[in-house]
Write a structure and sequence with these properties.
With 143 residues, the protein is mostly beta strands. It has a domain of 79 residues: OB fold (Dihydrolipoamide Acetyltransferase, E2P) (Beta Barrel). 10% of the residues lie in helices and 29% in strands. The chain has two helices and ten strands; from the N terminus they run αβββββββββαβ. The longest helix is centred in the first third of the chain and has 10 residues.
Length: 143
């Protein structure tokens, strides 16, 4: 019986000067870290890596990606194709040239009526200029 009474007296302290009983409690810390904040973290999404892949003056081969974009920031020009996600790619091997040209939309375009009313819209175009072919053939007359 001494042990339970001693443990009870350990938590109670008797103050002799003021004749009061003071209740003393102990605080026990967690032995494992709480992980409650994990659900507040945002999930990491992979970046889309949009932007220019090749620059003006660079040499490109057929099929190389020139520019990845969201929306038509740059339009496909000569020897440049446009993918489903509006990615511009080279249709021929050559050097990249950018130009600012007057837009001439198709009749089904929403900009068609705007252009027909006398307004002009200038857009940036990616063009691929193929290198000149070497003259390796010799022309011979048949006479």
């Amino acid at each position: 019986m001494a042990l339970p009474l001693q443990s009870f007296l350990g938590s109670l302290k008797y103050n002799l000067l003021s004749n009061r009983v003071v209740l003393q409690s102990t605080v026990r810390f967690a032995s494992k870290k709480a992980s409650g904040a994990n659900r507040n973290k945002q999930e990491k999404t992979t970046p889309k890596r949009r932007g220019p892949k090749k620059y003006v003056g660079d040499y490109v081969e057929k099929g190389m990606i020139l520019y990845k974009q969201l929306g038509l920031k740059y339009y496909p020009g000569e020897n440049v194709g446009c993918g489903r996600d509006l990615t511009l790619f080279a249709l021929e091997a050559g050097r990249i040239v950018m130009s600012r040209e007057k837009l001439s939309p198709y009749p089904s375009s929403p900009l068609y009526d705007y252009i027909n009313n006398g307004k002009t819209i200038y857009k940036l175009f990616y063009n691929v200029i193929p290198d000149p072919q070497p003259k390796i053939f010799k022309l011979v007359s048949r006479t």
